[in-house]
Specification:
47% helix; 4 helices; two-stranded antiparallel sheet; alpha+beta
Amino acid sequence: MELKLNTNKELSLNMTIGNTEKYNGWSNWHTWDAYNHITSYEGSWMRASECRSVNRLKNEFGPWIKLQENEIDVNEINWEELFEAI
């Protein structure tokens, strides 16, 4: 278990279980940050909430997330977890 201050000066708790690193209650950092990007804008959040399947969410937002200036690896996003959260 690791407690650290991230670059946004937010406190986070990371737990490593096997090869999976949890981040702030999410399966990993990429999923957590993708959720933050999608839900930070009303338009993207509304569009995401209209997606009726995991594949639709991934197809709609995977390319959009790649275009954002961030370090998110879309291949590391847990799309099922993201879909359930939205």
